[in-house]
Amino acid sequence: MKLTPGELHHLTELSMSCVNSITNMALFQHSVTDEKLKNLITTHFPLHIQDYNMKVKFLREANGPQEKLNVPALNKMLTDFTQGATPVPVTPRTQVMQLNDREIATAYLLTLKRAGREYACGAMEAANPELREFLKDAFTMACNHAYDVFQWMAEKGFYALAPAPQPAIDAAGQFFNLVQG
Predict the structure, then answer these.
(1) Which of 116, 134, 125 is nearest to 53 (CA)?
(2) Separation CA 49–CA 72 (nearest Å)
(3) Is residue 101's pLDDT more than 80?
(4) What does the angle CA 119 – CA 158 – CA 35 come to, to the nearest 5 degrees?
(5) Is residue 1 scored above 90 in pLDDT?
(6) What are the two backbone dihedrals, phi and then psi, of residue 33, each rounded to the nearest 5 degrees?
(7) 61 in Cβ contact with 67 (< 8 Å)
């Protein structure tokens, strides 16, 4: 496949990121104790493998993969997305032999967020339309997976949520005017 230098750079970095994600997810599946979190990681795992394999095919084959990434729908579990469970304070542990579920979820969520930013950037820079579509799909996959993990964390009190103050919302809403016509 012909790639621009930027496309090659993005694919290489994203492929290395997938090596990290898949390796961590394999470990997380055996370390996590919460069944709901374990199910999320187990369900997401084969999609990350598909994503990685498609990147390798883009790097190796003249026309890239002939498949489309299986992008999951956005799974809305929270009824109020501005409030979660009572926040559970956290302190970094300095003596660790095994990660707890909160640390696993945090590591996975931060990996997905970073990957999502890289996919978005890569998609915006891609000249190859097939690669651009793949990266857009990969962004959506990472975004939706991150939302799954975020919701689990919010339900446990591991992600602090609070509604924005109504006066701030009102002030922002009154600052901008609608375009007429």
Answers:
(1) 134
(2) 14
(3) yes
(4) 85
(5) no
(6) -105, -30
(7) no
Contact indicator for 31, 105 with CB cutoff of 8 Å: no
For 176, the token pair is: 């901008």
Q: How far is residue 68's CA from residue 133's CA, in Å, rounded to a whole number? A: 9
Asked if 149 contacts 112 with a C-beta cutoff of 8 angstroms, the reply is yes
Q: Is the predicted pLDDT of residue 62 greater than 70, yes or no?
A: no
Return the amino acid letter for 29. Q
- How far apart CA 86 and CA 161 sit, in angstroms, is 9
Residue 122 CA to residue 112 CA, distance in Å, equals 15
Q: Which token pair is 181?
A: 């016509």
Q: Of 76-80, 103-107, 145-149, which gets the smallest average pLDDT? A: 76-80
Residues 18-26: contacts with CB within 8 Å, 24+ apart? 18/48, 18/51, 18/52, 18/55, 19/52, 20/111, 21/48, 21/111, 21/115, 22/48, 22/49, 22/52, 24/107, 24/108, 24/111, 25/108
What domains can you pick out in the chain, each with its CATH number?
Answer: 5-175 (1.20.1260.10)
Q: Specify the DSSP element, H or E, that contains 98.
A: none
State which H helix or E strand residue 117 sits in. Answer: helix 101-125
Distance CA 141, CA 112 (A): 9
